[in-house]
Amino acid sequence: MGEPRSRTKKFWRWLKKPLLLGIPIGIVLVVIGLVGFQGVMVASNMNAFCFSCHLKMDTIVQEYKASPHYVSDDKVLATCADCHVPHEFIDKMKVKIAATADIYHMMKGTITKENFEEHRPRLARIVWEDMKASDSGTCRHCHSGENFDLSKQPQRARLNHEMIEQRGETCIDCHAGIAHKRITIE
């Protein structure tokens, strides 16, 4: 009778050793994974990352660099990600995953420097529709509170901003073209 119980105890003693070693190893691997993931998120939100492909499209980067989001009296730089990547985790992940389609099409050669302007209206429509669907959430992330003081705006702008909800509009309805030229949507 003592034999099976003894075997069970020996088995559990043997099993505890790898488990005790496995727990710290598992924790280290999870931390490395999270740090790596966060590193990729930070790197892919930097202008240098965006420019690595979009610079080949010429107009996109040049328009942005001439815009008030890149050059301002306040010396406040809005990065590509500030406007194009939501700040909430789930929405951010959706955008990052969807952006892999752009990378795929550029690598495949579907979208090139030579034909980019042909694709641009369709791509702009997608971005503007996303901004409209989120009630321009990325715009409102920065343009709120003290950064959006209606009393400091010219009368026409102040009145338009006060009426925006009543008209069922959002930032992108009037400000499409603030960082990139406004184009005719198909």
TrEMBL record:
Binding site for heme 1: C50, C53, D102
Residues engaged in binding heme 4: C139, C171, C174, H175
Keyword Cell membrane: yes
Coiled-coil features, chain-numbered ranges: none
Gene Ontology biological-process annotations: anaerobic respiration; denitrification pathway
Cross-referenced Pfam families: Cytochrom_NNT
Transmembrane segments: 20-43
Binding positions (heme 3): C142, H143
Binding site for heme 2: C80, C83, H84, H180
Names of the cofactor(s): heme
Binding site for a menaquinol: D102
Keywords: Cell membrane, Electron transport, Heme, Iron, Membrane, Metal-binding, Transmembrane, Transmembrane helix, Transport
Any one GO molecular-function label of the UniProt entry: electron transfer activity
UniProt main location, coarse: membrane
Domain of life: Bacteria
Domain NapC/NirT cytochrome c N-terminal per the UniProt entry, residue ranges: 23-182
Entry's cofactor comment: Binds 4 heme groups per subunit.
Membrane topology: Single-pass membrane protein
PTM field: Binds 4 heme groups per subunit.
GO cellular component, one term: plasma membrane
The family this protein is said to belong to: Belongs to the NapC/NirT/NrfH family.
Protein's recorded name: Cytochrome c-type protein
Lineage: Bacteria, Pseudomonadati, Pseudomonadota, Gammaproteobacteria, Vibrionales
